[in-house]
Design goal:
The chain is an alpha/beta fold. Helix content is 37%, strand content 16%. The protein has a single domain, classed as Vaccinia Virus protein VP39 (Rossmann fold, 3-Layer(aba) Sandwich), CATH 3.40.50.150. Strands 5-4-3-6-7-9-8 form a seven-stranded mixed beta sheet. The radius of gyration is 18 Å and the shape is globular.
Length: 284
């Protein structure tokens, strides 16, 4: 990632949600009416570029089939987990690598009694905070912003400085991030969630298998030069991987399974890239 530039993958996820929101409500996978407030004139599925959006969309669908639909399925799943956690008494929700997520703003009423933390790469968060002024309801009193570079800085120290309570029941959201950091960072994040949060805490995240990491390294080095994939895990090894680190695998879904759940009715024909796994891990 380039130190002074916002994440391009965060922009791609944002544009995917914004394009979905342009469809009729019954044809959407998720409902993200706020995504459009973060778009610029150059925001496309390939990042900030002047290439016309229809051409970019055609290219993206051809080269990355099912990825945009997966982003929407992932958003729906994370929405469901976060809302359920709030109903079940979570006092804090920490969005690790928040990007241009709008979850805390779309569901501000549901999260009214929850302390919300957005943790992200400094340049991305700085840009998001500039754009947040467009969003209805800004500023949001219970949202705290925590700039941190996962590869260089201490997550516990940064969160503590923002008022994070290590004794409170907390849900950690790690959406579209784990595969962009190395195994050392993955273990450090899991250790922090396990040791640095209160009883009943949990982590929801998504992963890719190692062959996807290797494929992008070999065949798409220029596309992934700034934000390369670094870590993957075989789906069948996830429960054991989590047990070794002090977690129970509360839920484990392949993207294709969640696609069948969320892509119904007029959304049924949407193809969802099947190689992702989505996991809810409960601290033991």
């Amino acid at each position: 990632m380039i130190d002074d530039k916002p994440s391009q993958t965060a922009i791609m996820a944002l544009v995917s949600r914004a394009l979905d929101a342009r469809l009729a409500p019954e044809r959407r996978i998720c409902q993200d009416e706020f995504a459009r407030y973060f778009l610029t004139n150059r925001s496309t599925l390939l990042g900030e570029t002047w290439i016309p959006e229809p051409l970019v969309r055609f290219y993206h669908r051809a080269r990355y089939p099912g990825v945009s639909a997966y982003v929407m399925v992932r958003t729906r799943f994370f929405d469901d987990v976060a809302l359920q956690a709030a109903r079940n008494g979570a006092m804090q929700i920490v969005d690790l690598g928040a990007g241009y997520d709008t979850r805390f703003y779309r569901y501000k009423n549901e999260f009214a009694g929850v302390c919300l933390f957005e943790v992200d790469f400094p340049a991305t968060q700085r840009r998001k905070r500039e754009l947040l002024q467009r969003v209805p309801g800004f500023p949001f009193e219970n949202v705290r912003f925590v700039p941190v570079d996962f590869m260089k800085e201490s997550l516990p120290e940064k969160l503590a400085g923002a008022g994070f309570d290590p004794t409170a029941k907390t849900l950690f959201l790690w959406e579209g991030v784990s595969y962009y950091v190395d195994a050392v960072v993955v273990d450090a994040v899991l250790k922090f969630v396990r040791d640095g949060s209160g009883p009943g805490s949990s982590l929801v995240f998504d992963t890719v298998p190692p062959f996807i990491v290797e494929y992008t390294r070999r065949h798409k080095p220029s596309i992934n030069a700034a934000e390369p994939l670094l870590w993957g895990i075989e789906p069948e090894t996830i429960p054991a991987f989590l047990r070794e680190r002090g977690f129970d695998c509360a839920e484990h879904h392949l993207a294709s399974e969640l696609g069948e759940k969320y892509c119904v009715g007029k959304v049924k024909r949407r193809y969802v890239a099947p190689w992702y796994s989505l996991i809810l891990a409960a601290v033991r």
